[in-house]
């Protein structure tokens, strides 16, 4: 299959029933939310350790006797004297047990992220090959998570070992060359650079197609590496074309991220990369490899125009969101209780810092550029909503932790605000759209967690879990509409309307 046909098949696959594929890519954005649960558990353990040993009370008492207001940051001597006066009060919080818990939590979070990413990737590529064969993607993806995650983990470990081994071997060769003679060492370094770039590029291309080989050939890591190598030998032009497209996409993403980050709006690029570019590249390479194996039957392009499909999807998303809210009042009440409760906890927790540490909504709005800010607010809040919702798939806990974390952070920020009236005035116009949207995403995460648990226990079939994921896609479309309205208001209205009155 030539590149043009593969691109056409990719676009058709993404446009026809996107809700049967993209939820697994939404799930990819939730991996950090799932992984950080390990760190939250470690921090909770640290807090209990400090509380039960009396260390936290000692630190509170010591801090209460001090003036925590920092001096002028332009005076280094005064800052040093202030830091030296505060340091003894914090000594009770220096504990080997606390350090051990934090280190263990960090390692657990990293391991959890690696395993979760492998499982999610297995689901993504399994859903892709199912869609390319005219089968239901989400059902195949759910099965793929369980049956193929070890193969994907093996691929990641193998590529890491190859890159590490090649780098160490090259470094050793260069070091040996310089021991003989500086000029010889420079020549060795140049040769290692040239050969190393070619070798590592070949490794990257092989491992780019290896995941597609896993799902197309239904094989393990070693079989997938062999299959990807065979594809490169048989179809070097297709592999090179894919490489050009992938590199071009990465360069485009990097350029857009740099430009928008300069304006403070980089979040939308990260979101687009995760839920648009990543699935497009996965479908493209699986199409090329699947055609090589004569193992796919790409779908025909949808008959509706892109514009009609967009507005039809928006209407369905709003309808599905409204229906979900109506049929799950208990989940929404629980979500609100968790968010508000941890908001109050955050307010109370930072009380000793009030006066010494402060935040200011007015200072945060300095240099505010409405269009860029609106885009950034949309990208950031939609990313949070998607991650919170899909993180619930990991048996509810990550979704609840995300709601709690955001509530705690907002409560702490409000307690430290210099001008609480201004903060309330700023939040009110867009908050009536944004806050309910985030609560809906939290309730959706809990709902997905319940469904995944019942599926894991064998009480629901995979088809029911797939239905829940497809519904979640459309509900998040409705949530995105609310967040888009909120972002426009937050960018163009909220920073300004109250200034003449306050």
UniProtKB/TrEMBL annotation:
Coiled coil: none annotated. Signal peptide: none annotated. InterPro entries: SpoIIM-like. The keyword Membrane applies. Keywords: Membrane, Transmembrane, Transmembrane helix. The keyword Iron-sulfur does not apply. The chain crosses the membrane at residues 24-50, 98-128, 149-177, 183-203, 239-257, 263-284, 331-350, 384-410, 431-453, 473-498. It holds the Pfam family SpoIIM. This is Stage II sporulation protein M. It comes from Halorubrum trueperi.
